[in-house]
Design a protein that fits this description.
By secondary structure, this protein is mostly helical. The protein has one domain (11-190, 207-399): MFS general substrate transporter like domains (Growth Hormone, Chain: A, Up-down Bundle). Helix content is 78%, strand content 0%. The chain contains 16 helices and no strands. It has helices spanning 3-12, 15-43, 49-64, 69-72, 78-96, 102-130, 136-164, 169-190, 211-237, 243-293, 297-310, 315-324, 330-341, 343-358, 360-378, 392-399. α2 (15-43) packs parallel to α5, α2 (15-43) runs antiparallel to α6 and α5 (78-96) runs antiparallel to α6. The longest helix has 51 residues, at 243-293.
Length: 404
């Protein structure tokens, strides 16, 4: 066997390699869709801020329904469902340019989002099952880097194609979607099946001792949707950023992330989940305040990049859960967590779309308040989370127990 063959064989047997490849494919599709969406919606469908808010709410419905993944894994393996989700994502992206109406964009967005959110649910479950706790922050950082590479590739190709050839939106969406479909099928054929060390419980799991994880998940979903729905739209509507500028901005963001994500994962391992979640929320408060008050397009672009880079730190919430969870709860809790994450996400973009029509700055001011609540919750994460030590309340209770 040649050296190349040996490396390929080793790669096939590496579950982290599988997770990184799937993450890159997933974000090639989602990044292509995201890079084109604001301009396509504005130029081809004549979207307003209200319309964009409604679209983003529709995009989040599959995330809200992520708990239904528990039913699918009764009849298929999680890894198989992840592959199928990538194909559905690609189909949704490929169809987008051919339906330049409000209803058409809602329909293709929903299809794309089903694939994206089911994949994310399965990927989170597989990662926390397969990767040991001590290695999780760094591995999640590497996966974040793979996501950034996928995004970087998508944004780079779109920017280059738009500059050199000025293709139609139909062509860009179609090619992007077909790449995802073909890559997802190829990955399924290349890698074997992997299993975690603990058999997962079937059905849904909702436990009182995970309440802080649920609360943090809810808050990150709420504040993230404000940025997702209106961060890029602000740059397009207020500052007139075109397709090439938006693609360049995203290109810069994920070029930074390819280098920064593994290092940020290492920082989580070094400083712990408590300090990391605090720092991430403080950063987001600054970003939202900046969005609310700035009239400078350069500063607005800087805040956009800052949020995109430091969002990687939200993986600290996953490693916090991994440390406090019963290992058999990871798969069933993944779907529950995604649903909780998307409770606010379903209505916030639509409601805030109306607020946008009144005062765009108010949207980001409210986001600052949401991030502040999330920061307060971060103080409840113990320095050394574990089963029985899920919050600082339990840590204090354990500290005052009399000696036996």
């Amino acid at each position: 066997m040649t050296a190349v063959s040996s490396r390929i064989a080793a790669l096939r047997q590496n579950p982290v390699a599988l997770l990184m490849v799937m993450a890159a494919i997933n974000y090639v599709g989602f990044a292509s869709w995201s890079a084109l969406l604001n301009n396509f919606a504005k130029e081809s469908v004549a979207f307003s801020g209200r319309d964009m808010g409604l679209l983003q709410s529709i995009r989040e419905i599959p995330g809200f329904l992520a708990f239904t993944a528990a039913a699918w894994i009764l009849i298929m393996r999680e890894q198989t469902l992840a592959y199928a989700s990538l194909v559905v994502l690609g189909v949704g992206v490929a169809l987008t340019g051919y339906f330049p109406t409000i209803i058409g964009l809602w329909m293709t967005t929903f299809i794309m989002s089903v694939g994206f959110h089911y994949y994310e649910t399965m990927a989170q479950s597989l990662t926390l099952q397969i990767v040991p706790k001590a290695q999780a922050p760094r591995v999640l950082g590497r996966i974040g880097s793979a996501q950034a590479i996928g995004q970087l590739s998508a944004f780079g190709v779109i920017m280059l194609a738009w500059t050199l050839f000025n293709p139609s939106y139909e062509t860009l969406f179609l090619v992007s979607g077909l790449v995802v479909v073909c890559a997802g099928i190829a990955t399924a054929l290349f890698f074997p099946r992997f299993n975690g060390p603990v058999v997962q419980r079937k059905g849904l799991v909702l436990r009182q001792r995970y309440w802080l994880y649920y609360a943090l998940t809810f808050m990150v979903g709420a504040r993230r949707q404000i940025f997702m729905a209106f961060g890029g739209f602000l740059l397009v509507e207020k500052f007139g950023f075109g397709v090439s500028k938006m693609a360049l901005l995203l290109l810069i963001t994920y070029a930074i992330n390819t280098i920064a994500a593994p290092r940020l994962g290492g920082a989580i391992a070094r400083f712990g989940e408590r300090r990391t979640v605090m720092f991430e929320n403080i950063t987001l408060i600054i970003v939202f305040l900046g969005y609310a008050v700035t009239d400078n397009p350069v500063l607005a672009a800087f805040f956009f990049i800052t949020d995109g880079v430091f969002f990687t730190l939200t993986i600290a919430q996953r490693t916090y859960f991994q440390k406090i969870a019963d290992p058999a709860d990871i798969a069933p809790t993944a779907g529950v967590a995604f649903t909780i994450n998307h409770i606010a996400a379903v209505f916030i973009p639509a409601v805030f779309g109306f607020i946008w029509l009144w005062n765009p700055s108010a949207v980001f001011a409210i986001g600052c308040g949401i991030a502040s609540v999330s920061l307060l919750l971060a103080f409840l994460i113990p320095d050394d989370p574990s089963p029985g030590n899920e919050t600082t309340f339990e840590a204090r209770g354990n500290a005052v127990q009399p000696a036996q």
